[in-house]
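Regression test case RT-17, inverse folding.

Input:
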C-alpha cells in the first residue's frame, strides 16, 4: 500500500467504516530516524484504530521507531515482511526477511520490549522456490517464539527476482489453504488473511477459517465496499452511508487541508474509485483528475465532480449538504 494509504486515504476509509483497523503506508526506519517525522507519522484523530507499518531489519532501529509510534498514539505497530520490491530488498527488509526468520524474531522481540502496544507481522506464505507448507510453518513458529501473536498473511509467495511488485500481487498462485492450516494448527495465534479478496462476501467466507481479513487493492480501487463493513463484519445496526453522505463528510477534510496548503491532487486520489461501476463514475473521475492538475484548484473542482453524480435535486432529497 505504499503511496496509497496516506492520511487522506485513511480519512476517507474512516468515514466509510468506524471499526475497521486502518494501516499506514510502510515507513522505513531510516525515514523516521533521519527524515521528517511529522510528515510520516501525522494522522487525524478520527483515524483510530490505526496501525503504523514499519520496514526495517535492525532490531534497535525498529525498537526506536516502535517507541515513536507509541508516543504518537498509534494503536499497533506492524513489521512488514511481505513487500517484494527491489528497493525494499536493497535495504534488507520486506519479503527478503522471510529467508532470515531468526532476525525477524529478534526484531519483534526488540520492538515488544520497547512498547506496550501490540507488535504484529505482515508476511507472505513463502519466497522464491519455497512452494511447500513447511518453510512457512517454520517461519511462523520462529517469529511466534519471539513473542509475536498476530500475523497478517498475504496468501501468495513472493518472487524476489524476476517479477515486479505488481506481478507479485497477481502471478504467484493464492494458497489460502496454507493460511487456513496455520490457523488450525496454531489456534493460539491470531491469523488474518490477505490477497485477492474482493468483496464482503469473500471476507465473510474467510472469517469461517481465520480471525481477520485485510483488504488491500479492493479498498482503494472500490472504497465504497467499506461502507458495509460495520454492519456485515462487526454486526452493527448502522445503515451504510450513501455516497452523497460520504462526499459531504470528506468535503470537510478537503476544505481544511486546502486551507493548510495540501494540493488538491493528493486529496482527490482516494475518491477516484468511489463511483466504480456507477452511473456517472467516469465523468466523476475525469473532472477530479483533470481539475486537480491546476495547483491552485480547490473546492470548486470537488463540487463540480459531485454535481456530475449528485445533482442538486438528488442531494436535497437525501438531506445531505455538500
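Golden output:
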Amino acid at each position: 500500500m505504499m503511496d496509497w494509504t496516506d492520511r487522506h486515504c485513511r480519512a476517507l476509509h474512516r468515514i466509510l467504516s468506524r471499526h475497521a483497523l486502518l494501516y499506514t503506508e510502510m515507513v522505513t526506519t531510516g525515514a523516521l530516524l533521519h527524515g521528517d517525522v511529522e510528515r510520516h507519522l501525522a494522522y487525524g484523530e478520527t483515524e483510530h484504530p490505526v496501525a503504523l507499518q514499519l520496514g526495517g531489519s535492525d532490531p534497535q532501529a525498529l525498537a526506536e521507531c516502535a517507541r515513536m509510534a507509541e508516543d504518537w498514539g498509534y494503536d499497533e505497530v506492524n513489521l512488514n515482511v511481505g513487500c517484494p520490491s527491489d528497493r525494499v530488498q536493497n535495504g534488507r527488509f520486506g519479503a527478503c526477511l522471510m529467508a532470515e526468520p531468526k532476525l525477524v524474531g529478534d526484531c519483534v522481540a526488540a520492538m515488544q520490549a520497547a512498547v506496550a502496544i501490540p507488535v504484529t507481522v505482515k508476511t507472505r506464505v513463502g519466497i522464491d522456490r519455497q512452494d511447500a507448507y513447511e518453510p512457512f510453518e517454520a517461519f511462523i513458529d520462529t517469529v511466534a517464539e519471539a513473542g509475536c501473536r498476530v500475523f497478517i498473511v498475504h496468501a501468495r509467495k513472493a518472487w524476489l527476482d524476476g517479477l515486479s511488485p505488481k506481478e507479485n500481487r497477481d502471478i504467484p498462485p493464492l494458497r489460502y489453504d496454507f493460511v487456513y492450516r496455520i490457523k488450525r494448527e496454531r489456534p493460539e495465534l491470531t491469523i488474518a488473511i490477505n490477497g485477492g479478496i474482493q468483496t464482503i462476501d469473500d471476507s465473510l467466507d474467510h472469517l469461517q477459517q481465520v480471525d481477520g481479513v485485510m483488504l488491500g487493492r479492493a479498498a482503494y480501487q472500490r472504497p465504497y465496499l467499506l461502507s458495509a463493513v460495520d454492519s456485515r463484519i462487526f454486526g452493527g445496526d448502522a445503515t451504510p452511508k450513501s455516497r452523497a453522505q460520504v462526499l459531504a463528510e470528506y468535503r470537510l477534510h478537503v476544505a481544511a487541508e486546502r486551507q493548510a496548503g495540501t494540493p488538491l491532487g493528493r486529496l482527490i486520489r482516494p475518491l477516484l474509485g468511489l463511483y466504480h461501476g456507477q452511473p456517472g463514475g467516469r465523468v466523476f473521475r475525469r473532472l477530479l483528475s483533470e481539475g486537480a492538475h491546476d495547483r491552485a484548484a480547490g473546492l470548486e473542482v470537488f463540487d463540480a465532480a459531485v454535481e456530475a453524480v449528485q445533482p442538486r435535486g438528488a442531494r436535497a432529497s437525501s438531506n445531505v449538504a455538500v
